[in-house]
Please model this.
Amino acid sequence: MTTENWLSRGEAKCQSIYNAIPEKWRLKDPVPPAAELRDVTGPYIQQFLSAREIEITESDAFEITSQTTTGRWSAVEVTEAFCHRAALAHQLVSCLHEIFFDAAIESARELDAYFAKHQSPVGPLHGLPVSLKDQFHVKGVETTMGYVGWIGTFEGHRDDPRRGTVESELVRELRNLGAVLYCKTSVPATLMSGETVNHIIGYTTNPKNRLLSCGGSSGGEGALIALRGSPAGFGTDIGGSVRIPAGFNGLYGIRPSAGRIPYQGAANSFDGQNTILSVIGPLATTARSLTLLFKSVLTQEPWYHDPLVLEMPWRDAIVDETRDLIKKAQAGSSTLAFAIMHWNGMDRIHPPVARGLRIVEQTLKRLGHKVITWDPPSHATVHELAGKTFDMDGGADMRHHFGLSGEPKPPQVIVEENGTALTISAIAALNIAKREYQKRYMDYWNSTVELTGTGRPVDGVISPIAPHAAVIPHEYHSVGYSSFVNVLDYTSVVIPVTLADQAVDTRQPETSLGPHIEWDYDADTYDGAPVAVQLLGRRLQEEKILTLAEYLGSEIGPS
Amino acid sequence: MTTENWLSRGEAKCQSIYNAIPEKWRLKDPVPPAAELRDVTGPYIQQFLSAREIEITESDAFEITSQTTTGRWSAVEVTEAFCHRAALAHQLVSCLHEIFFDAAIESARELDAYFAKHQSPVGPLHGLPVSLKDQFHVKGVETTMGYVGWIGTFEGHRDDPRRGTVESELVRELRNLGAVLYCKTSVPATLMSGETVNHIIGYTTNPKNRLLSCGGSSGGEGALIALRGSPAGFGTDIGGSVRIPAGFNGLYGIRPSAGRIPYQGAANSFDGQNTILSVIGPLATTARSLTLLFKSVLTQEPWYHDPLVLEMPWRDAIVDETRDLIKKAQAGSSTLAFAIMHWNGMDRIHPPVARGLRIVEQTLKRLGHKVITWDPPSHATVHELAGKTFDMDGGADMRHHFGLSGEPKPPQVIVEENGTALTISAIAALNIAKREYQKRYMDYWNSTVELTGTGRPVDGVISPIAPHAAVIPHEYHSVGYSSFVNVLDYTSVVIPVTLADQAVDTRQPETSLGPHIEWDYDADTYDGAPVAVQLLGRRLQEEKILTLAEYLGSEIGPS
Model:
């Protein structure tokens, strides 16, 4: 395919996305350039909405379902409000790949009819609009995953009967739960980037500061939810792809351990690689909304429908135990214990991120908790393990999919384009090295029982998600703060903390961290960018970490 | 290394194993040849034991611990009885690789001292001798895994400081639980064989019929426990290696799903292959003993010590639910539902195995349960997936380890010696094909809800473990009846059913099964061989399937 061809095909698809926005919701006037107006959240986007639409769309998923499952708010009203706001969001930051508002409103009507008839909801997500990263297949809707070569195909296969006819397992479950599906969100082609860029929608910017990236690869989710064009959505994470956009957009997001949320029937990059599995997790505006979505999916018993899902229902007992620990801490009769990883020994963090960690540390201390410094096995090792895994096939999968259209690889994609595929013995050695690293890290975690004074090892670990609060385009140089979690297969919940502030986050040397921090930090450009941390738990400790995130988020989050 | 060298080194090691048997326990007279005396269990081995030793060694692990954890039986007395009987067993069927009775008696003494001081046991396995397949590292003891080239090394590495100094995670946990370790049992080098043969101990025969194989690869475990030289032990299973020897020796054995029992720090073949994981499971003389061992290990929270173990404690709630279903069935108020797989469409089963299935079917019907015929997705497909996985590295791992000494591959090893290693894209394709097969099988299992009348899909599936009851040496042609379970990662518990009987198990055509059954069946030679079935559950349903096996085993087992 010639250059003209892939460019024009990408542009045509881009136009068709825009065309799917009803005339009434199209912006009449041009949006001011980012240099003049960085932040398009809040008052800027609100000007296009009614007070009622603002009320609905600025409620969190938990609140919305408390209204829709009791019949106080109709599914149609809620759906229309979010469709409107998502349409605006896309026009502000290019965050959508697919728009299917008509189908959404139709299913909302059916939900309302069901409620009218039975006086009870279809399920716990009755009437809740849920956005989906463009890896999930939805009937009648295309999946491009950012590849021009996938336009008009099924995952790049022409004339495949599955095109437009199949649904991913998670989509089936969301429908059972009463969720309303209405749009799919932008991703970087390959999914292997901390920025969201492709030859269809171009570049998704950060709604809080359009000079910056929304993060990636679930970048469209992050941007859309930050603009409240969605109350909650599902992303995927193999190296940080849920957590980076959650953090960069001031949202909550969870990267659960592999085996809890069904990936069955979703598109993916380099499928069949099973050294580090990509996992699905929700992003939302509150921690309690993450819990709602996570828990609701588990009621569908996905372990009977996806062979990679573990038979592990939502464990209320762990929630209760964790709440009990919190209550005891609040009563002053004991404490929780946390570790903070101030840096990973490789990637210098920017002043806003360092300040975010300090805010969290001070909050933990104010709440009476024990705080220790995290001093784990070498992060250089784990960074190398992740990199080797991502480059395992020498870029063959990526070359194939870019090759379908002839489009070039965007420079932000972190996978090597012309690497060498690993041999089977190298893959086995990598799998062993990964397991041995996991074992050392596990033993280190166990060893903290000597330091906490609680009789338990640390309850959670606080870490940056990236060296920067959001990122200047093309300046995302290392995913080391996120990808180690994937190697370890730990649970991680992102908690928003504050906003970068050029008046405070100056280029002061952070002597306590060793090297002087000034690496490509630009206090002016980063001003206003969301700062977040991740709260890590051990493998499969989603119930504990979500419960802790709910508690800590309410104490440390930006008000 | 010259032929003379590996032969003589293997022989020297074999002699050193014999030398570890105390003089007083050595047989004075030669054992009659197998053609004259097939069965060396029961009266034959009992003649060398005291009545008290027989009482102790013919108790199951459950009964033994009920005595030892209450101080009624001393750990030393129990340990000495099993050491004596294990020594005899080895002299009858060559089932041991390592003997460390002195260390065992020393730890039994410590256990007795602990009990005397605290009037309570160290743990639920206090004083229970537990045998180990020769993959587990025990301090002061060698691990050869059947390779001559591993003698005097750590897993083939010379001058490795771990030699004789490290212990596998499971060994550490067993010691915490109060178990007494005293011997390691024979395996086929490579572990990839349904017979147990190597150039150290030669060939481990079947104690019930020494013309036949004891099975493999946990063959030494099967033979030793059949002779009651051990009440229970741990084997491993990647294609049937726990279940085949359990079935061939009239024992119970469980192949749990991956992620429940810790493999950390055990030797293995082709480590780092992660398409089908080898798993550890116990073998024992009763189902309740399997439950005891399995449950005890989980009390050690192995998920904090092995990165591949899932945080999934023993689930009493599932046991209670299952018992409730059984009680309701016994009261006639509802039924359980089982499927029977009479054959896999590829490997014709022998008359004793077909009769075993009929006995189980009749028992299930007598108990009032629903029985349907299992008609799953093609087993030819799953057989191919397993074979591709086992041959994935083209035999490189095996060649390396045989090459350390120059010994040849025994013909019974099922891995191709000079195959072609898969490329990374072929491995990825295999992983996808495996997952897709698992999904089809899962959907089929779900679909049986339409046939059971219980409102649930089948509660378990009954299948042969092999085409034959034990096997004539060199005549194990397909592990298709066992390896499909590993591809699916299902739970499987072996239940002994009966013994082959040449008077009954004639060459009658089993017309209902399709092809005429007479494939290499020799009614005379197979006479007396144990017949067993496996009870399959879905992935991670160990609690349910162990509970059902306890129930069904007591109804169908040989009396």
Residues 511-518 of chain B have pLDDT under 50 and may be disordered. The longest helix of chain B spans residues 424-447. The domain at 316-556 of chain B is CATH 3.90.1300.10 (Amidase signature (AS) enzymes).
